[in-house]
Fold this sequence. Notes:
Elements: E1 5-9, H1 15-22, E2 28-30, E3 37-41, H2 46-55, E4 60-64, H3 72-81, E5 84-88, H4 95-107, E6 113-120, H5 126-140, E7 144-153, E8 156-163, E9 168-175, E10 182-188, E11 192-198, E12 208-213, E13 217-218, H6 227-241, H7 248-268
Helix pairs in contact: 1-6, 2-3, 5-7
Amino acid sequence: MTAKLTVSSVERAEARLRLGAATLPESFRYVDGDADVVGLVGDGDWVARAVEAVERGARGVLVVDPEIADVARLRAALATHNAVVVLDHGWASSPSVERAADDFARLAEPTALIESRIDAPVGADVARVLSRHVALIRAAVAPIASLRLLRADAAGYDVLGEVEGGADLVLSGVFTDALPESARVRIVRHHATVVLEMGAIDVAAPGRVRILDATSDVAPLTPFETPHRCAWRRLHAVVVGGAVVNELDGFDEDSALVRAALESASVSA
């Protein structure tokens, strides 16, 4: 039998926080006040709100779409209170990413080229979308070792870089209302290609994985599940199972890369 945890959200008006947990009735039960786990949106002073939740007894915290922030206080609070935090970066939490990760890893040699594009609505924040993009590459392929921002404006961004292991990286963000929100990651070698395509973050339609080489074109099935619901499942598994997780170190590394790239572009301009 699945252990049921009580859950509350700091921002109770946020439908995206409630919907993910509400679709897991065997795992979570909403309550008013203090709970086993807490969900919050990663805007503004999200670190302070997460620290407060942990200090009030939360065993786990889910942070949705966290902005770049100093997480030193949160790291200390988690260690003191034996709690965990799970970061929901949108597409990075998708079960389709988990399905494709082994195939990407198989091709992620120094001679590979990794291309990825995110389509986001007009008016999207460059730092926020680029942070999601960097988290997606970490989850799907490997942590990013370097980033160089070529362009960032109201229409999107273009980035060059390299992942750990040496493969070259090209990231593009396109801000448009003419296309639905989506993300695509492709890794290319001389003998094979793996492509992952995913629709809007809040849609449960499965992503599409294609594995192509000289003799085959395979499209494995991926689950019908939103990335947000998958993140709630991950939080439940970690809290109930008592696993030790550390998502803040990767967040710190990715945030530093994004911050440095944006600051360098500002100085150059």
